[in-house]
Amino acid sequence: MIVFDDSLKTGNQLIDDQHRELIDRVNKLEKACAAGGQKRTAIQTLDFLLDYVHVHFADEEELQTEYKYPQAAAHKAQHRAFEEAVSQLNEMLEEEEGPSEAFVEAVRKNVAQWLVDHICVWDKQLAQYIREA
Questions:
Q1: Cβ of 127: how many Cβ atoms within 10 Å?
Q2: Domain positions in the chain
Q3: I need a surface site. Which of 43, 86, 87, 122 has the fewest CB within 10 A?
Q4: Tell me, which fold does domain 11-132 have in CATH?
Q5: Do 115 and 22 touch, CB atoms closer than 8 A?
Q6: Is the pLDDT of residue 36 over 70?
Q7: In angstroms, how far is the first alpha carbon of the chain from the final one?
Q8: Which is it for the CA torsion 50, 52, 56, 58, positive or negative?
Q9: Which residue has the higher pLDDT, 36 or 129?
Q10: What are the start-end ranges of the H helices in the chain?
């Protein structure tokens, strides 16, 4: 479970609001998978997360273009890697009867921890660049 606190704030209202929503969706995914969650519910929640990820990444990438962010290509590559990781989780879940312990651990590592790390490094750098521009 991720808690959106001051350590995850970038100082950019749009990005922070979207991160709150992303974290809420990641937490819902973890909850849907806990205690023998049903496969269909987990798939729907994963799809729900991925839909919002596309919106958020598009908005961030639009800001990067607007402000001519010099790290835009590397930041976008991070986004594509995350989308690929989520797609692999979807495939993993499709092959299983339901969310296994390995799946839940992969969600924690490849979604929850990745998101926290990405916010703390990449998104904070982007927000700082925008503030200084």
A1: 21
A2: 11-132
A3: 87
A4: Four Helix Bundle (Hemerythrin (Met), subunit A) (1.20.120)
A5: yes
A6: no
A7: 34
A8: positive
A9: 129
A10: 13-33, 39-66, 72-95, 101-107, 114-118, 124-132
Residue with tokens 């989308």: 83
User: What are the structure tokens assigned to 117, written together?
Assistant: 């790390």
Residue 25 DSSP class: H
Q: Kindly report the CA angle at 42 between 99 and 100, in degrees rounded to 5?
A: 5
Q: Where do we find the tokens 């479970």?
A: 1
The pLDDT tens digits for 41-78 are: 888 888 888 999 999 999 999 999 999 999 999 999 99
Asked whether 60 and 72 are in contact (CB, 8 A), the reply is no
Placement of tokens 């590397």 in the chain: 74
What type of residue sits at position 128? Q
Residue written as tokens 């273009």?
65
